[in-house]
Amino acid sequence: MNLEAAKLVFYEESYELLAAMEAALLAVENAAGPERGEHLNAMFRAAHTIKGSAGLFGLNDIVAFTHLCESVLDKAREGELAITTPLIELLFTCRDHIGSMVDAVRCGVEAPDSGALGTQLKSYLVDSAPVVPTPAAAAMVVKQEQTGPRVEVESGGDHVVSSDHWHISLRFGVDVLRNGMDPISFIRYLASLGRIVYLTTLYDGLPNPEEMDPESCYLGFEIEFQAAPNVDKLTIENVFEFIRDDSKVRILPPHAHIAEYIRLIKDMPEGMSRLGEILVRGGALTPMELDEVLGIQRENAGAGEHRPLGTLLVEERLAPPQAVAAALDKQREHAAQKTREHRVVRVDATRLDALIDLVGELVISGAAAQLSASRSGDSALIETIASLGELVERIRDEALSLRMVPVGEIFSRFPRVVRDASRELGKDIQLELAGEETELDKSMVDKLADPLVHLVRNAIDHGIEGSDARRNLGKADYGTVWLNAYHESGSVVIEVGDDGGGMDRQRIRNRAVERGLIQADEVLNDQQVLQLVFEPGFSTAETVTNLSGRGVGMDVVKRNIEALKGNIEIDSVAGEGTIVRLRVPLTLAIIDGFRVGVGQVSFVIPLDMVLECLDLPTDRGSSQQHYLNLRGEVLPYLPLRELFEVDAPAPARQSVVVVQYGSQRAGLVVDNLEGELQAVIKPLGQLFRGVRGLAGSTILGSGAVALILDVPDLINRAAKNERRKVALIAAREARHPAMREEDRP
Amino acid sequence: MAISSIYHHERCILRIDGSLTIYEAGEAKRRLMDELNLAREVEVDLAGVAELDTAGIQLLLMLKREAARQEKPLFFHGHSKAVLAVVDLYNMAGVFGDPVVLAGGAG
């Protein structure tokens, strides 16, 4: 991996960590007690990790700034700093600042200045002791101060606080004497590593003279031991190395060491998953002790009783409970890390696209193979190709789903957006999220984020009334804004709703007339009036706020959505609220299609949009009217033959394919129905860019090209044509037929 | 190792000379138990002990405990340097009684 590639990982990781930090910040506001500590820890870890990674790339600005954040967070974590609203505000700003610094590095521009924020952060640190580089180093300094003078005091024979001694329990095996080893020599050797403060010889094990074997050892010892500097648990244990096998040796560290173990365990790098390993690495347990307790665990398991290692360690007094608890925490942390690692594999998007392209080719070749197989009439071949086809289909689905990400990825940024906006406007807003697991194409996610932020801000600014107004209307004091996502006939729908005042049609109309967007006497249906807010330069807000109402934005939102081949729908009830519905296609690469023919030409309709097929009635009256009566509803239809000027005589029987997009329906008249197929969408050449009604092309198994129909556009056109004609006829017949497209939920 | 016993009536003075270690432990145990069973009161003179190990001190412990069980007075005295070193290390001066101090002062 070269440096640039590694940097990409750094950016991604930083954004993830910043997101985690933001989530923790939001949570810490509402949390208390240990939960709060957990969130502070999460923030600290995020800052710490970013600092570490930035250091690898020599990004000194980021290192310096995150170091300050980390120090403040550390103080907060230790409880030396109260979590106040100004502090949280500051941390939010710092989080954003780190984000913009990372962005700056990414774009190769100069990093924004951290001076002012740095000063603010430092003001929280003033009370702290002389600045030490890291908390770890601080601990070391303190430790030396404590142990230094105490050693001298002890050599003077003064009273010694027992908690600073190691406690060693020895129960010698019966055979040690016979094996030529004498406890005396071990204790003498131990004494050479420090000072035996107190020793108690236990001889309760000595049996009656008749039973006593004079060559056996029956003694045990409890020793308070003052270790010389640099003598750790392992060194002490090594004293008893030769008798470990048949003797019981328990070495308990001084209390001061327990804190040290906990610190070591907490500071350990990730990568260890086993409790024993963590404790051994932290120095709280020696490898021998681990082997021993694992042996006990095995014996217990053999006896049909499973006991966790941690419990055994504490029971056997091999490790202090506090250290075991810290190690267990570490283990959990690691497990969490691990599941995340397992869940996510970073893949370059271009490689994914290349894979999907190849799968597309595979689908086409598969169709060709299927065609030749069925022509050959070789049943074995047909069967093989059929199962191959099934696999190809599954590969296609899998490959496409690789690009799919849950929409929650966008939603997760909204708690912050709503929080900031509601603070700024002094409105009490509650955010509800639903359908976060709904998946859509990764490229869509990136492009939907900004329009959604805009819509949410708009809802908060214009939609939700002030709390006084709300109280007068008998609504809850806090406004609710919700985001909801779901799948609907091959599209993903994302709703942004609020329970505010709804849209005032009259005001929208007046403003549109005022701005010259429509004529004063122009007849518009409800949806058309509402859609006026998406016109460039439209704004009904009485005052322009910081958030929205500058008249730019809504038109940009609409443009962005249309660029994704999506559309926007507004539902608004005065006094009750507004729902803005964004509808975008699920994917842009491969679709399940329905193939139809007109003359020699094949067309493909996205299968998700096909509702039903029926015969075109022969007694449909005037050929001027392009609409049918479908079970009592008016269904406008478009003859594809006329639309695409196919030069072939119409057969006696024609079919209608009823398609739906959003809440609108239309029929497409074709010669014959040719069945389902998988269509790899190939973009149309430059020449056909301007052609309306076509979404792309695909290659059929036979090698022939089929055109993919742009159903939303066709439905629109059918509706428009018919409306015009119907209006004409209606005027003539003084009759008002119901129009389907106005019949909204 | 040599264990000699001198009886004054039923009071026995046991004198241990040389080393009292695991190598002599089997024989020493028999000797010591025999003498304890015969005597009513025992005085153990440790002045001649040139070497003492854990097996040895276990024997002395056993002797003392058994004497207590049989309700026979038993004293140690004349602790040699070798004995004192082990008793000190094992912090058993209390167990072997204050004669340590007396004997130490006398010898």
From TrEMBL, chain A:
Residues 388-588 form the Histidine kinase domain. The keyword Transferase applies. It catalyses: ATP + protein L-histidine = ADP + protein N-phospho-L-histidine. It is an enzyme of class 2 (transferase). Coiled coil: none annotated. Residues 1-105 form the HPt domain. Residues 590-720 form the CheW-like domain. PROSITE patterns: CHEW, HIS_KIN, HPT. Keywords: ATP-binding, Chemotaxis, Kinase, Nucleotide-binding, Phosphoprotein, Transferase, Two-component regulatory system. The modification Phosphohistidine is found at residue 48. Its EC number is 2.7.13.3. Involved in the transmission of sensory signals from the chemoreceptors to the flagellar motors. CheA is autophosphorylated; it can transfer its phosphate group to either CheB or CheY. This is Chemotaxis protein CheA. It comes from Chitinimonas prasina. The gene is cheA-1.
Automatic annotation (TrEMBL), chain B:
Residues 13-107 form the STAS domain. InterPro entries: MlaB-like_STAS, MlaB_ABC_Transporter, STAS_dom, STAS_dom_sf. Pfam families: STAS_2. This is STAS domain-containing protein. The lineage of its organism: Bacteria, Pseudomonadati, Pseudomonadota, Betaproteobacteria, Neisseriales.
